[in-house]
Amino acid sequence: MIFELSRTTDFPDPRFGDKSGFYAIGGDISPERLTKAYPLGIFPYYCFRLEPICWWAPQERFVIFPEEIHVSHSMRNMMNKRRYRCTIGKDFYGVICGCAGVDGRCDEPNAWLGPEMITSWLVLHDMGYGQSVEVWEGDELVGGLYGFVCGRCFMGESMFSLVPGASKLALIHLAREMQKQGGLMIDCQLETPHMKSMGARYISYDAYLEMTSSGGTMNL
What we know:
By secondary structure, this protein is of the alpha+beta class. It has helices at 31-37, 73-80, 92-101, 115-127, 166-180, 193-197, 205-212, and strands at 3-5, 22-26, 43-44, 54-56, 60-64, 85-88, 130-137, 140-150, 153-161, 185-187, 201-204. It folds into two domains: 3-59, Leucyl/phenylalanyl-tRNA-protein transferase, N-terminal domain (Alpha-Beta Plaits); 62-212, 3-Layer(aba) Sandwich (Aminopeptidase), CATH 3.40.630.70. Helix content is 30%, strand content 26%. A hairpin with a 2-residue loop joins strand 8 (140-150) and strand 9.
């Protein structure tokens, strides 16, 4: 079943959504709606120049457990050279703009990270839900990622690299910081070779909800 969302920000039980993960259409991407969506594993993913808004809620969740993050030999060499440094929450705007515009993404017909989405995420950042990881070469932002913080979980939204390996470096930094604070998992949303190579694997939706509702916080 594919739901049609109303003006209210409540969501039907994702367990009754379509098996493909395509969950609902309609509604809006207001910060108020997004703060209810992400803890349930629901996220918007659609072409921002087209209507309607499409929502996804896969029942098999592709996640990375921080303690299982895979660091390849090449990444270890890159990290040992200390050419780049990582920070958290120092330039959320720069990261989300990098994710939107790198390699001409925003001009592609299927681009999803448009102005309205960026505006909502900036509000989420001000509310304490949106967080970023930055990768710097000197004073230049060369990569990073951003996502939604829910208790001890992090729902990843997008990442970008201006130099090889920068987004992987950001993810490793995030995982290691989460390990220090008892972080439970990083939601990758959809399977990609990139995330699979970093150690992502599938868990059930029920196991996912146990972690997003387990309580506790991280000071990312």
